[in-house]
Amino acid sequence: MTAPMTATGATGARPVPPGLGSPLARTVRLGLLRIGYEVRAYFRQGDTVFFTFLFPVVMLTIFSVSFSEASFEQTADGDDITAAWFFLPAMLAAGVLLSGLQNLAIDIAAEKSNGTLKRLAGSPLPVVSYFIGKIGQSVVTGVLQAVILLLLAFTVFQVPLPEEPARWGDFAWMFLLGVITSAILGIALSAVPRSGASATAVVIPITLVLQFISGVYLRFSDLPDWLQSVASIFPLKWMAQGMRSVFLPDELVVLEQNESWDEPGIALALAVWLVAGLILTRLTFRWIRRDS
């Protein structure tokens, strides 16, 4: 009598009982189990934790301390907007991008290179379950990162957080849509590096340039109009704008393009990139590189 098939302990899946139910239920269950494995594996990688999970926290701290005496803008009541207050939305948006796009693009490229995906190709793990695990990892780590950023800003740098439930509702859908879109794009981008060793050199410059042109490290309104238009093509600009609409006073909307937070535009831009990412992933993702 043969033993039950497994998705191999080396890749984190548990034994698959023969009576698991419908294929859809099996796929979802394996995907949810995979999330736990992916999160544990993520936090075991010190360099990944620093450059994706803690990096926005470190940058918020540096900006807040370095410009502690500066006032970036003023509220309608005449209160100064501190560096920590001003940069908090940008760091939240950057964290979404790093947790999704940068992390998954590098991670999956490395798994292709070291043979992990080849082993998974011969296991019972459906590709959709694998994607659920990766996207779930991005959501879980992104939420933890956002909580740390918000706690740091509120407790250490006295940044006032929104009191209106509607703003937190906006934050929830913008964050969730942003991190899922970033994760899907990260899966698609993982097809670009030729090897796991080159993945960092390929992916990090892309995310770094996007951060500079999308109003993360520089005030977006200070960028040339043509560069603002270029940034508007990419999702990070919209995620940063959405976070500013939640955490900055309404009067600062004059610093945005067209002097509007444009929530429908944010939703549309991210939805378009989500669909584009799904199409690219469908066309490019392989368990094994074609040139292997």
UniProtKB/TrEMBL annotation:
<dbReference type="GO" id="GO:0140359">
    <property type="term" value="F:ABC-type transporter activity"/>
</dbReference>
<feature type="transmembrane region" description="Helical">
    <location>
        <begin position="139"/>
        <end position="159"/>
    </location>
</feature>
<protein>
    <submittedName>
        <fullName>ABC-2 type transport system permease protein</fullName>
    </submittedName>
</protein>
<feature type="domain" description="ABC transmembrane type-2">
    <location>
        <begin position="47"/>
        <end position="291"/>
    </location>
</feature>
<feature type="transmembrane region" description="Helical">
    <location>
        <begin position="49"/>
        <end position="67"/>
    </location>
</feature>
<keyword id="KW-0472">Membrane</keyword>
<dbReference type="InterPro" id="IPR000412">
    <property type="entry name" value="ABC_2_transport"/>
</dbReference>
<feature type="transmembrane region" description="Helical">
    <location>
        <begin position="199"/>
        <end position="220"/>
    </location>
</feature>
<keyword id="KW-0812">Transmembrane</keyword>
<dbReference type="GO" id="GO:0046677">
    <property type="term" value="P:response to antibiotic"/>
</dbReference>
<dbReference type="GO" id="GO:0043190">
    <property type="term" value="C:ATP-binding cassette (ABC) transporter complex"/>
</dbReference>
<keyword id="KW-1133">Transmembrane helix</keyword>
<feature type="transmembrane region" description="Helical">
    <location>
        <begin position="171"/>
        <end position="192"/>
    </location>
</feature>
<dbReference type="InterPro" id="IPR047817">
    <property type="entry name" value="ABC2_TM_bact-type"/>
</dbReference>
<keyword id="KW-0046">Antibiotic resistance</keyword>
<feature type="transmembrane region" description="Helical">
    <location>
        <begin position="265"/>
        <end position="285"/>
    </location>
</feature>
<dbReference type="InterPro" id="IPR052902">
    <property type="entry name" value="ABC-2_transporter"/>
</dbReference>
<dbReference type="InterPro" id="IPR013525">
    <property type="entry name" value="ABC2_TM"/>
</dbReference>
<dbReference type="Pfam" id="PF12698">
    <property type="entry name" value="ABC2_membrane_3"/>
</dbReference>
<feature type="transmembrane region" description="Helical">
    <location>
        <begin position="87"/>
        <end position="110"/>
    </location>
</feature>
